[in-house]
Amino acid sequence: MKLFHLLIYAFCCASLGKASDPAGIFETMFYYYAYRIEASAFAKADRMLASQCVTATGEICTLNDFIRKIANNPGELIAAGDTTLPAVEGADVTFADMEWTGEYGGAKMNHMAMMAAVTNRIQAAREIMTVDPDLLSRAKEGLALTQELRWEENFSKVPTAFNDRFPGVTLYETETTLDGVKVDFIDWVKTGTVQASKTNSKAKVLIKRYQDWAKTQNNEGYFFHQSMLRNVAAFRNILEGVPTCHATSVRYRKSP
After folding, report:
1. pLDDT in tens, 185-198
2. Fewest Cβ atoms closer than 10 Å to its Cβ: which of 45, 127, 186, 243?
């Protein structure tokens, strides 16, 4: 348990979002409400998420207290964080002026393994009691907005590299279901088909050309992030399922 506490401490220092990273703020909300759910279900000695985060009177920590506890250098926090029920929707605006050390990325730790472990702590709480539906809803909302914002970030970075190789070609996005979860991805078929109609080229040729480019190192970051997003989508499904369902992180080698 102590090890897990140290892991989440190190993870949050390395990987939680800054004020300049809206998706990271929503991810922080997910962790905060996971902490609250676990704290409502387990005695302090049995808690794993920021287990030392309690007030002098033994009460639950506010969001600001939580950030101070898990961040190496919390920096500038704001009065809006002095609450135990921070609104998830609009949190990227509410807390835009907050500053704390941390940047998005999983270089030092397995980001998805940690998120899976936190998801499982919520599930463990659900197994032994009826979790406050409002807290659970807020945790789910944090995950949903994390997925949405991470996709927007991922998709926004691809066109520049793509257009360096294929100037003037518009990339399209779509949604599909993989392994039972819905994920967004680049629609290479539509991209090739639309471009073919503009240039009198063969759609199959362009689609293969674009897909071949997508497999190169130029697009490695896209597939890495798609793997991450598929995991986040799976964790959301876990929280929608029965309490005995458990999350596992997967490193997807291939993604659309």
Report:
1. 889 999 999 999 99
2. 45
